[in-house]
Amino acid sequence: MWRGAAVRVLRGGGGGAGSPRSASGAAVAQLRRRLESELEDIRGAGTWKSERIISSRQGPHLRLAGGGAGILNFCANNYLGLSSHPEVIRAAVEALEKFGAGLSSVRFICGTQSIHKDLEEKIARFHQREDAILYASCFDANAGIFEALLTPEDAVLSDELNHASIIDGIRLCKANKYRYKHMDMQDLETKLQDAQKHRLRLVASDGAFSMDGDIAPLREICQLAQKYDALVFIDECHATGFLGPNGRGTDELLGVMDKVTIINSTLGKALGGAAGGYTTGPKPLIDLLRQRSRPYLFSNSLPPAVVGCASKALDLLMESNAIAQSMAAKTQRFRSKMTAAGFTISGKDHPICPVMLGDARLAAVMAEDMLNRGIYVIGFSYPVVPKGKARIRVQISAVHSDEDIDRCVEAFTEVGRKHGALP
Ligand code: PLP
């Protein structure tokens, strides 16, 4: 009965005039009109995001719902191909059977199992840090850290192109906020000088930026941090597992593992791709987050199957750096062949390879035409990237074969010539 009434209200129906049901019916009708107009604006602006439905596992070859099979996938964050690795899947099944579907609890009530503690210890060991704390996502880790750590006496200095979750996390804290120009060390230095009046300074940057595939100048950031007595925080979502000789991340790649104080990262990309995030760093900081960080305190524990996936992914990475090395070689193959074909690829040495096209329509029609040739890539345009800097973002995975990469380059070359992106 309640359901019938709810459906009537959502469809804009209701009771007689003056009844409480008609009042809420009018409010819902008004809400529907407002939402429909907002949705129309999004469509009109050409920024509508549609979701393609995949009917297979995540991997280099996909099946799309509605027929398309054998689609070559170049747009997942599955950098190491571990999302469908047999040992990762087996570890998830074993954890599910042994520890159950989920905890029905936050960590501090009755939501901590031995596997959560083991995974936190493994993450800290992987990054060579003192301790780690798990979250439901890296978005949550970023939402939780700044507010718990910084007060109005402190300052945070953030790269202007940092991920949305860092921006939101900083919004939630009461520290003094400085935004420095993207990877501009002169601007960071000026802001650090200004921030000397505050008790504590925290420089926050993505380790690798997901739209451009560029890597933060961490060595220079750490030098400035040392000069101006600041702490360094990095978000390693697009680095953990594959940047650096052993896949430890941007700090390993640039030789500053001992100079970065705090790392936030995800379990939902290279590390098995299921879900989850974490902070790793000094033990007192992790202890404080367990007491104060709101997304940790007020959200459910990670499900055992998810913990099992990430734990196995880390085992595989700590056993050998072969997967990370294989991804680096594939990345190099794609970048050099595309450059030789005449395309401009943004960034350097990163598996995020944005094929720069400039024009938004060109990026959209080329991405569509690539899919017609069985290659799944995504075009990005304003407001996701600046006006005039539209691109197709290609992401390389260790499980792409050399033939997959070559097929992608050939298709780009054909499509680029057809649409005038290449002579
Ligand atoms: N930080 C960066 C740089 C990201 O790219 C993402 C995901 O897109 C996140 C944080 C959020 O990670 P998660 O998916 O674990 O919430």
TrEMBL record:
<dbReference type="GO" id="GO:0006567">
    <property type="term" value="P:L-threonine catabolic process"/>
</dbReference>
<dbReference type="InterPro" id="IPR050087">
    <property type="entry name" value="AON_synthase_class-II"/>
</dbReference>
<dbReference type="InterPro" id="IPR011282">
    <property type="entry name" value="2am3keto_CoA_ligase"/>
</dbReference>
<dbReference type="Pfam" id="PF00155">
    <property type="entry name" value="Aminotran_1_2"/>
</dbReference>
<dbReference type="InterPro" id="IPR004839">
    <property type="entry name" value="Aminotransferase_I/II_large"/>
</dbReference>
<dbReference type="InterPro" id="IPR015424">
    <property type="entry name" value="PyrdxlP-dep_Trfase"/>
</dbReference>
<dbReference type="InterPro" id="IPR001917">
    <property type="entry name" value="Aminotrans_II_pyridoxalP_BS"/>
</dbReference>
<keyword id="KW-0663">Pyridoxal phosphate</keyword>
<comment type="similarity">
    <text>Belongs to the class-II pyridoxal-phosphate-dependent aminotransferase family.</text>
</comment>
<dbReference type="GO" id="GO:0005829">
    <property type="term" value="C:cytosol"/>
</dbReference>
<protein>
    <recommendedName>
        <fullName>2-amino-3-ketobutyrate coenzyme A ligase, mitochondrial</fullName>
        <ecNumber>2.3.1.29</ecNumber>
    </recommendedName>
</protein>
<dbReference type="GO" id="GO:0005759">
    <property type="term" value="C:mitochondrial matrix"/>
</dbReference>
<dbReference type="InterPro" id="IPR015422">
    <property type="entry name" value="PyrdxlP-dep_Trfase_small"/>
</dbReference>
<dbReference type="InterPro" id="IPR015421">
    <property type="entry name" value="PyrdxlP-dep_Trfase_major"/>
</dbReference>
<dbReference type="GO" id="GO:0008890">
    <property type="term" value="F:glycine C-acetyltransferase activity"/>
</dbReference>
<dbReference type="GO" id="GO:0030170">
    <property type="term" value="F:pyridoxal phosphate binding"/>
</dbReference>
<keyword id="KW-0808">Transferase</keyword>
<keyword id="KW-0809">Transit peptide</keyword>
<keyword id="KW-0012">Acyltransferase</keyword>
<feature type="domain" description="Aminotransferase class I/classII large">
    <location>
        <begin position="71"/>
        <end position="412"/>
    </location>
</feature>
